[in-house]
Amino acid sequence: MRERGHMNKWSFLKDMIHGADVIIEIVDARDVQGTRLPIAEKWAGSKRLLMVANKIDLLKPGTMLPKLQNKGIYLSAKKFSEQDRWDFLNGIMARTSVRPVKAILVGYPNVGKSSLINMVVRRSVTRVSAVAGTTKNIQWVKVNDELMISDYRGLFPNKETPEMLVRKGAINVAGNEEKFAYQFLERVSKKPHLVEWLEEKYGIKLKDAKNPEEILEKIAKRRGWCLKGGEPNIEEAARSIVRTMKDAPEI
């Protein structure tokens, strides 16, 4: 049953793509290649496809941006300018001569599809949430007389591991946060710029932290998360890390 339901998601997406004029693939600017949907790109075809790399605001300052295929664009749905909005709209309209245009957004869960729709219409018309998989139903939104836009539920390839999906914010791991927090912190300890980001995020110093548990202890103490007897609440710190890792400058 689960497999049949999974296949139905892709089958319905294929139908949606075939019925749209423009397909907007939203990827994460921190991992463009790792958040692409090759099968959706194949169904769309290069002429109808607009790749948009969202969350550019999370990148480390000075990060080199790879060129996106087919004149794709970088932006931030949270910190956008009027120029960003017009670049986005013009990018859509340039991909077809059909009017009015029906454009559909596709991408991983929690990559920012709903936020981009709210950006382009200048009001909150779709539900935006930090919880992966919020978009359940198709909702067409009229931007103007020449453009209708919608987003489809987030999807990801079967090859993805749970660890990678958690780091990308694509799945929820309620009840298993410590495992993924430890995996993430092991990686952080090997990357100085991520250590700096974590220190700034929590207002702590990690120079003397030798392992993930010591990092979690520092976070718990800094935030005042303690158990009876004054022991640092590692579980609460791990939950915080899992919520925070999706905003790291590198996935």
Structural class: alpha/beta
Give the strand order, joined by hyphens, for the main sheet. 3-2-1-4-6-5
**Number of beta strands:** 6
| Regions with little confidence, pLDDT below 50 for 5+ residues | 1-5, 128-136
Number of helical stretches of at least 4 residues: 9
Proportion of strand residues: 5-15%
* Helicity level: 25-40%
What does the main sheet amount to?
A: 6 strands, mixed
Q: What's the helix-strand series?
A: HEHEEHEHEEHHHHH
Q: What do these coordinates show?
A:
This protein is 39% helix and 12% strand. The protein has a six-stranded mixed β-sheet, with helices on both faces. It is elongated, with a radius of gyration of 20 Å. It contains nine helices and six strands, in the order H-E-H-E-E-H-E-H-E-E-H-H-H-H-H. The protein is α/β, with parallel strands linked by helices and 251 residues long.
What is this entry, summarized?
With 251 residues, the chain is of the alpha/beta class. The chain has 9 helices and 6 strands, in the order αβαββαβαββααααα.
